[in-house]
Amino acid sequence: MKLLKNATIAALTLSCAVTFGAPTAQSATLLDFLQGKNRKQSDERSKPRNSIFGGSLDDDLSGDFPQPAKPVKALPKVSAPKYFAYKPDSLRLIAVSKFAPAMETAAAETVADPSETGSIETISTGSTPFRSERAMMSEARVKAPTEVADAIEKFYAANQGLLWVDAGGVNDKARVAMAYLEGVDVVGLDPAEYRVEDPTDGIASTDEIARQRRLMQFEIELSAAVLTYVQDTVRGRIDPNRIAEYYDFKRKTVNLGGALKVIEASPDIAAYLESRTPMNEQFAALQREYVRLKGMSDGDEARIVIAPGTLLKPGNSNPELANVIAAIQKRASDTLKVDHSVTLAAYDGTPEYTPDLVGVVKAFQAEKGLKPDGIVGAGTIRALMGGDGTATKMHKIKVAMEQLRWLPRELGSRYVFINQPAFTAYYHNNNAEEFSMRVVVGSPRNQTFFFQDEIELVEYNPYWGVPRSIIVNEMLPKLRADPSYLDRLGYETSINGRQISSSSIDWGTTDAVDVRQPPGRGNALGQLKIMFPNSHAIYMHDTPQKKFFERDMRALSHGCVRLSDPKKMAAAVMNLSVPEVEAAIATGQNRQVKVPEKLPVYVAYFTAFPNKDGVVQYFDDVYGRDGYMDKAFSATAKARDIQS
Questions:
Q1: Per residue in 37-64, pLDDT tens?
Q2: Contact assessment for residue 336 and residue 367, using Cβ atoms and an 8 Å cutoff
Q3: What's the pTM?
Q4: What domain range is 598 assigned to?
């Protein structure tokens, strides 16, 4: 990506922040620049405010006649991105006329009476009629997604052979493929969408013409089912960009023509189909968990009940403490139970919440990504009680598997992964998680997008370019009541690149103003930001609001990702030490530095995802997006004429 992308970002209505010009070349230092600005504002405040640019009346108008007041425009509104009614891929009839030969006939000689034998027997000679199996394809009627239909038409037009049928009928390769497709629920797909019935069921063995007709219908049906599966398992059944404007993915292309050639040559069709699944370590962990849960029911996993409304603080006495400790014995990792084995073994069910037991609870909270304060409240109780039931967990895994298909097959050896429902950012290096940290993401009203990009820049002592959504939705009402509002806060305002004081702008008639906050202690971005230029102006940054990181629910920002330890993340992506990052900040200079090597960043949304040990963790659906995935699954099944 080019740095020129920043110019595009500045013009958009966005969820987080934009940037615009740095101090002019005439300003020797940042202090000179700010002092010059203040002098300019003082001069401009002394002029009549008839013009939105702060000039005198004579600058804008000729003559001395009184001018009518400009009408005040109604307050505008910048709308948030939308969710859609999901529209699945359409299906079309496969054009069998493109590859099925015409029916061939010749002089016929009947050698048996069908009324006696129940069938027509023909002699295979040059003077005898025959119906080739391929000719029967002209009667097949099969619908498939457009890409699948295109591939099938090209393949059979160029190849005279069959994939799934031989002289004996349905061949072994077909039966293996059918059996494989019946088990694809373990990779998060619906077997009903790829099911093909045995073509010989219900057909009399003597009705050869009907048998051939059904076999050719089956040939095309199974090719369509297998190719649809291959496409779905590689790129996903769902196009995320049709769910909401909060998703931004280029949908993968799948070489279906090449897949058919491999299928034709493959001696092990099951192995080939399995190889199409994105079996990275994250997907494999999700699959293992799904298989484990599949063998259970909600009743198999005994739930420990802690009385609703329980609030247990260190030093308290509460009879629910016994259930709390029992839940920890059941839900905690083996490592935790070994580390605190003496305390757990000595506990005799008493209600006194002693310091030793507080230590056990704190360890459990830390393990579950909660604030380790020893206070047993609603969030801790949910974790203690096992969170979601089995059916809900399986659904979250199904959604997670689908979403992993939108990402690269391998995430890379070095990358940053932000999981919004977990409120956590993870830095991976040399194919392993090196560290993680708490983050604050967009509120439900200002949701963070789901996309992937590359980290390109770190900016020290950044300016904050206020996004237009905040200017219009939040600042404009205040500015109409008090035009000097931004001047007093120390913000800079400009129109068409020309800097002008906030108090000199007629906010009743214009809102096309760029606003930014200079670097400083109170800057909304703190001391640095980590940039991966994108059309949503999402990035990672520091924040002066450190207390937010103490909360368990951290969907609190306008859309960007606030880091609890931004210096550590900046040092990692820059291949520097934390003291080196601190030294760059200490200069006080606003400076953008390219990272030595671009690295992927995944701004993701998974309500089920494995941790570094391969254990799947479950998170609250803070934006309700799994519900929209459900609707997309249902719409896709309906479009494929499947009742799931």
A1: 443 443 333 333 333 333 332 333 333 4
A2: yes
A3: 0.76
A4: 411-606
